[in-house]
């Protein structure tokens, strides 16, 4: 069987539970057709580079799939029908990525940087008189 990464973008107005249900539906489609989902990552609500179907943001979800080609074709067919998914892309990969994906590592790194800087409320506030001088 071949390895694939399937990423889909769900509408911004969906709740996280609905996005998780979409991921479960995709997993069920794959497993019903003798495929296997090796990893599921939810990247969260992120801004889009441009508006897609009146959405400025979207929920990103990535699935790592180990399945034959006809399973991916069925998954993409079902994904096209779903109105809650605004974009999707499936890419064949040579090997599965170990550990968290690049996007998850980036989110963790950003969280650490914010923690190092501390809350912006910790900075001493300058009076307006000092700024005018």
From TrEMBL:
GO biological process: translation
SUPFAM superfamilies the record matches: Ribosomal protein S6
Region (Disordered): 97-133
An example Gene Ontology CC term for this record: cytosolic small ribosomal subunit
InterPro entries: Ribosomal_bS6 (IPR000529), Ribosomal_bS6_sf (IPR035980), Ribosomal_S6_plastid/chlpt (IPR020814), Transl_elong_EF1B/ribsomal_bS6 (IPR014717)
GO molecular-function term, one example from the UniProt record: structural constituent of ribosome
UniProt KW keywords: Ribonucleoprotein, Ribosomal protein, RNA-binding, rRNA-binding
Basic and acidic residues: bias regions: 105-133
Pfam families noted in UniProt: Ribosomal_S6
Homology family: Belongs to the bacterial ribosomal protein bS6 family.
Function: Binds together with bS18 to 16S ribosomal RNA.
UniProt xrefs under HAMAP family: Ribosomal_bS6
Record's protein name: Small ribosomal subunit protein bS6
